[in-house]
Design brief:
The complex is a heterodimer of chains A (332) and B (289). With 332 residues, chain A is of the alpha/beta class. Chain A has one domain: Aldolase class I (TIM Barrel). Helices cover 29% and strands 19% of the residues of chain A. Chain A contains 9 helices and 18 strands. The chains are: A alpha/beta (332), B alpha/beta (289).
């Protein structure tokens, strides 16, 4: 059976739902020998800022249980150098390029978006309002009013589809997602890294040069799935699931939980060809659910309260001794 | 000598995939040599380049570890596999030390730039701790034996010396390998249990003092040692390449973790990625301060 892998994220159409996440794939040129770049649904190159940023002092990453912490600090050569040196290569790949931008201020974001809006060959922009490693930018991801305003500001100066990448380090990611939707975002990317820390007690030192960093990898997948599930029930715009995706099973979990596409991040670091493996296996996994398209599986999670239902009532928890069968499970 | 900025070496010829341990033997205290098959990688890898290795089928440890090629294993004259020598010090390497023939690994490489052929009459290789590992292949190449890829050329050295420093004699690994390949070995230990009682860098000046460009230094080990050797090389007017042991998450240039301070030629410096712009740098380009 032919499976239709195309996905529509607001105004952004992709040939398949497997993207690579910002900051986990360099500027793609690095991976040309290991990945068939043209097969990817989209590439999100490393976040760029208006001016060059040196990034944080090393050590910038440390491995943790089934994950890693990073405090890279948006090390990049700035917008104009990106356009001169990195973008021409990306534009020739025949794959959608979603440029990730971060700013310290509202005006920074608007400037970046307006400048990039005039560059042919960009498929969409992703507003990185969630990097935990730089001061300033993350405020837009934690304050709904600021989030809505910056998304609206971006929409106002640019015709490209706008994605907002959100942080899980908030009380209610749903509130932020609603704000992004209210500002006119085409889709939201959920989640950026979870703020964390590692300590070398013998030296009484943090293991990261910047003390705190963002946790990523398989360790955060349950948090990301939870965020996708919650937001899928609260907003109408599509969701791009990000967080610990390292196999086709992970990818399918996100689609079923409500994501319309996924971004593979940390797994690129330790399984360089993981995106190709996922793409090879995805049609078979979708067909296994009896569907013939990605859209046919998105948000089809079945819970006690029906498709996409809410949390089980507290009284029912711990009583799930019956096997859960589709459409037949009920709490007793 | 290359101009700044250093060249970026993308892993365009890299291979990634599953492989199996063929053998994994202890060669010194906490030090092992693991062999695995990877013909495409073995045919491409150069002395000083590295590969990333991880244990298959587990998320913990999650990331690969950068490890230097120790030797290329031939089968019927053709590159077939790679030997890697490692110190069991952390989560992954301790588990790797317990691996047996048939255990599964995931490997990608070759990565990084490797040592540039020096053409020097006397190649002096300075290794500290586990930093001797890239020098078995380099020393053999310098003495005229080719490694898989034969396009490097370069004039053969008349003399190749390994200056090898370790905390104690029990940690010295592979000295017989080096000697049987025709490489002179001089040893220094912190506790005086073998060779010179003191720093490995103490061995350099008596070897190369006054020989100028006829000698060339290559160095791999802990950063304080690299810094000391760089200063000695500068004082003696001898060219010196250093291979950095910066921790890495991906090895391919995509994570931007393994940055080091590289001089920009204008009195400043910038963080550059050790994996794709190194791990080998001309010593004067590194800002060790």
């Amino acid at each position: 059976m032919d499976v239709d892998l195309r996905v529509q994220l607001g105004r952004l159409a992709l040939c398949n739902p497997v993207m690579v996440a910002s900051g986990t794939f360099g500027y793609a040129r690095e991976m040309a020998g290991l990945v068939d770049l043209g097969r990817l649904g989209a590439i999100v190159p490393k976040t760029i800022t208006r001016d060059p940023r040196m990034g944080n002092r090393p050590p910038r990453t440390v491995e943790t249980a089934a994950g890693m912490l990073n405090s890279i600090g948006l090390d990049n050569d700035g917008l104009e150098t990106f356009l001169q040196k990195q973008f021409p290569y990306l534009a020739g790949l025949g794959c959608a390029i979603v440029v990730s931008v971060a700013g310290r201020s509202h005006d920074d974001f608007v400037y970046l978006v307006e400048r990039l809006g005039g560059v042919p060959g960009i498929a969409a922009l992703e507003l990185n309002i969630s990097c935990p490693n730089v001061s300033g930018g993350v405020d837009f991801g934690t304050d709904p009013a600021m989030c809505e305003r910056v998304v609206r500001g971006a929409r106002g100066v640019c015709d490209l589809p706008i994605l907002a990448k959100l942080t899980p380090n908030v009380t209610s990611v749903t509130a932020i997602a609603q704000a992004a939707a209210g500002g006119g975002a085409d889709a939201v990317s959920l989640i950026n890294t979870c703020l964390g820390m590692a300590v070398d007690w013998r030296r009484r030192r943090p293991r990261l040069g910047n003390v705190l960093g963002g946790l990523s990898g398989p360790a955060i997948k349950p948090i990301a799935l939870r965020a996708v599930y919650q937001v899928a029930r609260a907003v109408d715009i599509p969701i791009i699931g990000v967080g610990g995706i390292a196999s086709v099973d992970d990818c399918m979990e996100f689609l079923v939980a409500g994501a319309s596409a996924v971004q593979v991040g940390t797994a690129n670091f330790y399984r360089p060809a993981v995106t190709m493996e996922i793409l090879d296996a995805l049609p078979g996994a979708i067909a296994e659910l009896g569907a013939s398209s990605v859209a046919g599986v998105v948000g089809t999670l079945e819970t006690a309260n029906g498709t996409g239902g809410g949390c089980p009532p507290p009284a029912a928890q711990g009583k799930m001794d019956q096997p859960i069968t589709r459409k037949s499970f009920r709490y007793t | 000598m290359s101009d700044w900025p250093t060249a970026t070496i993308y892993p365009d010829h890299a291979w990634c995939g599953p492989t199996e341990v063929v053998e994994n033997v202890a060669i010194a205290r906490d030090t092992y040599r693991v062999r695995f098959g990877c013909p495409q990688l073995a045919a491409e890898i150069l002395p000083g380049q590295f590969l990333m290795l991880r244990l298959a089928g587990t998320d913990d440890p999650l990331l690969g570890r950068p490890l230097a090629m120790y030797d290329v294993v031939l089968d019927g004259g053709r590159p077939w596999g790679v030997d890697v020598v490692y110190l069991a010090v952390g989560k992954l390497t301790r588990r790797l030390a317990a691996c047996r023939a048939g255990d599964r690994l995931e490997v990608w490489g070759p990565l990084g730039n490797g040592f540039r052929p020096t053409g020097a009459e006397h190649l002096v290789m300075i290794g500290g701790g586990i930093g001797q590992t890239p020098f078995y292949a380099l020393g053999q190449e310098a003495l005229g034996r080719s490694y898989g890829r034969t396009d490097r050329g370069g004039r053969a050295a008349r003399r190749v010396t390994l200056c090898y420093g370790a905390r104690t004699a029990a940690l010295l690994a592979g000295i017989d390998d080096f000697r049987s390949a025709g490489i002179e070995v001089q040893v220094a230990t912190d506790d005086g249990s073998a060779g010179h009682h003191g720093l490995v860098s103490d061995l350099i000046e008596p070897l190369v003092g006054g020989s100028g460009p006829a000698a060339s230094l290559v160095c791999c080990g802990p950063e304080p040692m690299l810094k000391t050797v760089s200063r000695i090389a500068q004082r003696l007017g001898v060219p010196c390449q250093v291979s950095l042991e910066t921790p890495m998450a991906c090895g391919m240039g995509i994570c931007f973790s393994c940055v080091t301070k590289v001089r920009d030629g204008r009195g400043g410096w910038d963080y550059r990625r050790t994996c794709v712009e190194g791990p080998v740098f001309d010593a004067e380009k590194i800002d060790f301060d």
